[in-house]
Amino acid sequence: MAPSIKSKLEAHFREKMFVESLLPVTEWKVELASFDIHKITNPEVSGIGYQEGDLKGFYNVKAYVLDRDGYTCQHCRGKSKDSRLHCHHIVFRSQKGTDAPENLITLCETCHKALHNGEFKLSGNKSKTKHATEIGILKSQIRKSGWSFAETFGYETKYRREQVLKLLKTHYFDAVAICCRDDQNVEVEDSVLLKRNVSRGDYQQRTGKRSEKKIPTGKLFGLRKFDLVKTSKGIGFVKGKRSSGFFAISDLFGNKISDSVNVKKKCRRLSARSTTLVQMVQMTHSSPTCHFRQAGTVEEGVSC
Hints:
Elements: H1 3-22, E1 25-27, E2 29-31, H2 37-41, H3 61-68, E3 85-89, E4 104-108, H4 109-116, H5 130-144, E5 150-152, H6 154-164, H7 171-179, E6 187-189, E7 191-197, E8 228-231, E9 234-240, E10 246-250, E11 256-262, E12 268-271, E13 276-282, E14 291-293, E15 302-303
Parallel strand pairs: 1-15, 2-5, 6-14
Antiparallel strand pairs: 3-4, 7-13, 8-9, 8-12, 9-10, 10-11
Helix pairs in contact: 6-7
């Protein structure tokens, strides 16, 4: 398994343990998404078109790319008179490039060597199917992990959320719809717990101007970056520090609350920073079928 896929799989299990540390979970219900990768690359495909892709009639991807490019170098357009052709990855496999035809280009050997010598660069487009492919792998690995859960599907979630619960489309309302039964009387909290993972420190600039300056990561006026503070201009996380004592404050996702808050006056730290930032926010919504109750009451059990 690729390290990036393994990291995302472990992130799912960490979230599972986090939820279990907060709630008395009696049953897990998980919505496993499926994606039509052919439809992503070609929205018009239907019927027999699924069996007649771009590679139909070609021995392999390389043969298709050479034919698509007219057996001509796409950089010099044949000006080098070099008949030796290469099928080159625009974004290297080592840099998360794929073997998809849109990431391959025909180059003559002269241009191919010049490219690897750094004489010119090719600009590539991001893969449209990367995340869909990763989801498919994650889905398979979660099923094999031994995690006991009931599987549900997107169309069931959408029906419950829209037709039964009469709720808007949000991630947390989707979670409510996944958990509940069609005949269940649902009580929804009026607050949502948001999380964000951040690095332990800041990235040090390695080249260019000011690359010799070390980034200060310690406390200033008793505060570090990403500490949660209550100030005269609101509650938020420390985003930037200044020796003058005027700090920049943002919400959990980096949106500006204030560029200049005097932390030397009327400022209180609510929690110290960690690699996982957590913040409770209030949500405003009404539904004819759901009862929204004030946060703080405890439910005897929950099904997720």
